[in-house]
Automatic annotation (TrEMBL):
InterPro entries: Cyt_b245_heavy_chain, Fe_red_NAD-bd_6, FNR_nucleotide-bd, RBOH/FRE. Signal peptide: none annotated. This is Ferric reductase NAD binding domain-containing protein. Residues 99-275 form the Ferric reductase NAD binding domain. GO terms for cellular component: NADPH oxidase complex. The keyword Oxidoreductase applies. Keywords: Oxidoreductase. One of its GO terms (molecular function) is superoxide-generating NAD(P)H oxidase activity. It comes from the Eukaryota. The lineage of its organism: Eukaryota, Metazoa, Spiralia, Lophotrochozoa, Mollusca. GO terms for biological process: defense response; superoxide anion generation.
Length: 287
């Protein structure tokens, strides 16, 4: 037997509870149950010497009916149940994807931190060669291990402070990609593209933020560093234009695109709608 305890704490668990509550319980025969209890009581009395049969109380019909009313919360129903799985989180599919787009909103970026680290580690290992004979220690990564050809990471936050706790990892990823390109003596071709959005900031198209954004752009071109996060990637002001973003991603033609989202459900619906327009597969994860 399998016992499954589900706490009604959300939408689908509440619907599950309401579904089972609406099902009529199995109608049991009180007379039949009474006779079964009597037989069990007599059997126990015969197997226990020194005990008088009067010591065993036999429940009558009224007591059985009362028990049944109390036990309604544990009623027996005829329902066919099928078990499928186990399943992991949506992000487990990333390494089976050719072109992955990771979208994190606020704290929704948390499950993607380890994914980005793992991607960068595998990429670096595949590029390791002997400095003398140029022997590749890892070789070409087989598709069974990682199909990834390109990753776009998009992180959306309201203000500058929200970026602070995760910027260290992003800065490390940027430097590691530059180091790999330098060791190979090739132009920088990023396997992970990082784009950050700060929704509280006014965009260039807004006259209230035009001056500030122009100044930030000039500083970024001069210092090759973003003044808000310290990354080489320029932080974008305002909300993402998903049609524009996905259009550029589609033009890269790095393979089949799959979008992985973690964040507020309302934003998830917006991203999903844009994915359908560009025929991108959409996966979401709750955190």
């Amino acid at each position: 037997h399998i016992w499954l305890h589900v706490r009604t704490a959300g939408h689908w668990t509440k619907q599950l509870y309401e579904y089972f509550s609406a099902i009529d319980p199995i109608q049991e025969n009180p007379d039949k149950e009474l006779k079964m209890r009597q037989r069990k009581s007599h059997a126990r009395a015969s197997w226990m010497p020194g005990k008088r049969q009067s010591q065993f109380k036999i429940k009558d019909k009224e007591e059985l009916q009362a028990e049944k009313r109390i036990a309604q919360i544990m009623k027996k129903v005829h329902v066919k149940c099928h078990i499928d799985g186990p399943y992991g989180t949506a992000t487990r599919e990333i390494f089976e994807t050719e072109h992955a787009v990771l979208v994190g909103a606020g704290i929704g970026v948390t499950p993607m931190a380890s994914i980005l680290q793992s991607i960068m580690y595998r990429y670096k290992e595949s590029k390791r060669v002997c400095p003398n004979c140029k022997f590749s220690f890892y070789g070409v990564i087989p598709e069974s291990v990682m199909k990834l050809k390109k990753v776009h990471f998009i992180w959306i936050n309201r203000d500058q402070k929200s970026f602070e706790w995760f910027v260290g990892l992003l800065n490390k990823i940027e430097k590691e990609q530059i180091d790999v390109a330098f060791e190979e003596g090739k132009d920088l071709e990023k396997v992970i593209d990082i784009t950050l959005y700060m929704t509280a900031a006014k965009a260039k198209t807004d006259i209230r933020g035009a001056g500030l954004q122009m100044a930030l752009s000039i500083i970024h071109r001069r210092d090759k560093k973003d003044l808000i996060t310290g990354l080489s990637t320029r932080t974008q002001a305002g909300r993402p234009n998903w049609n524009e973003i996905f259009s550029k991603i589609s033009e890269e033609r790095k393979g089949k695109v799959k979008v992985f989202f973690c964040g507020a459900p309302q934003l998830g619906q917006v991203v999903k709608k844009a994915c359908m327009k560009f025929d991108f597969r959409f996966r979401k994860e709750n955190f």
